[in-house]
Design a protein that fits this description.
CATH class: Alpha Beta
Strand content: 25-35%
Number of helices: 4
Number of strands: 5
Helix content: 25-40%
Distance between the termini: 26 Å
């Protein structure tokens, strides 16, 4: 398989479940240890994770982290510390990733 020269990140984590927070944080720590470039898109109920201090800190290690603005309006609280975006941002991030992990 030819190497993807357009990829910006090695792994994109697509997160839709709040219960995935511990797994997401562990995977993000592993990416940091292994110097693997990663990104994260939070959607659905998992948008609330952008408010969680532990998860928000872990997301700061990502090349790009975005929370779905529509989901944030439904599940978030106050101002998001993570960039707000849309499903269009999600699609763009998918196009920039070598691998996708759905949680």
């Amino acid at each position: 398989m030819a190497e993807d020269k357009e990829a910006v990140m090695d792994i994109l984590f697509l997160v839709s479940r709040v219960e995935s927070a511990p797994t997401l944080r562990a995977l993000l720590r592993a990416c940091v240890r292994r110097k693997v470039s990663c990104g994260c898109f939070l959607t659905g109920p998992a948008a609330a994770l952008a408010y969680d201090p532990e998860t928000e800190a872990a997301l700061r290690t990502c090349a790009r982290a975005v929370v779905c603005e529509y989901s944030w309006e439904r599940f978030g609280r106050g101002l998001s510390l993570v960039s707000l975006g849309s499903q269009t941002d999600n699609s763009a991030m998918v196009a920039q990733a070598r691998r996708i992990v759905s949680l």
